[in-house]
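User: Just a sanity check before I run the rest of the batch. Below are the structure tokens for the first item. I only need the designed sequence back.
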């Protein structure tokens, strides 16, 4: 699939990264949602102590969640670990793998924040602009914001807010387990985020697309390091 070349990823300083985020947040569209979903893609990364990034992108059928495509890859980490700027470590390799997909997904989920980010441009929002597809940020933990703990049952949820503005949702995807932190990335509204997260939450805390991406990158990293 083709992606848009919004900017390059080379020689980006922290000041340049902050400037890019502030400018690109104006391009984020939090509206609508996917139509006639037949495929869902997801991506995740892992890192090793030697400065190598490992990534996996999966394409699943919907509603059966059959694996249609899997692409993995590695590259040297090009940006330091700084909360709020993780996209600059993760997006370059992920985008290379998304470009290898032979078909364009109808919906994308990423292990990271969408607009629940200090400058409203987490991984889901930033990559969403490049992909020009409905994209959801699915995070295991909160980056910022306040919330009331949702009820204990699957499907219970509450708003995640920052300075009085709704920036995401705290969703219980399984009875009596920790909630996940979900926020729109691009071309999708809050209602559709909630709908699709619940449709993709099967037996586990993590929605099936990002769970499968996580499992694949874990296996891929292990296969490389044990050679």
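Assistant: Here's the designed sequence for the first item:
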């Amino acid at each position: 699939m083709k992606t848009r070349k919004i900017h390059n990823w080379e020689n980006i300083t922290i000041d340049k990264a902050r400037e890019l985020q502030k400018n690109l947040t104006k391009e984020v569209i939090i509206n609508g949602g996917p139509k006639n979903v037949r495929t869902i893609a997801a991506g995740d990364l892992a890192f090793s102590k030697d400065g190598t990034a490992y990534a996996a992108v999966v394409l699943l059928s919907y509603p059966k969640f059959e694996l249609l495509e899997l692409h993995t890859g590695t590259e040297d980490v090009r940006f330091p670990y700084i909360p709020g700027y993780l996209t600059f470590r993760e997006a370059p390799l992920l985008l290379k793998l998304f470009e290898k997909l032979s078909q364009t997904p109808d919906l994308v989920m990423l292990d990271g924040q969408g607009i629940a980010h200090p400058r409203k441009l987490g991984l889901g929002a930033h990559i969403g602009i490049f992909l020009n597809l409905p994209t959801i940020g699915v995070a295991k933990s909160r980056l910022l914001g306040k919330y009331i703990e949702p009820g204990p049952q699957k499907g219970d949820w509450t708003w995640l807010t920052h300075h009085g503005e709704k920036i995401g949702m705290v969703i219980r995807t399984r009875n009596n387990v920790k909630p996940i932190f979900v926020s729109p990335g691009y071309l999708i509204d809050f209602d559709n985020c909630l709908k699709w997260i619940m449709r993709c939450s099967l037996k586990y805390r993590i929605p099936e697309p990002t769970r499968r991406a996580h499992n694949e990158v874990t296996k891929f990293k292990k296969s490389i390091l044990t050679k």
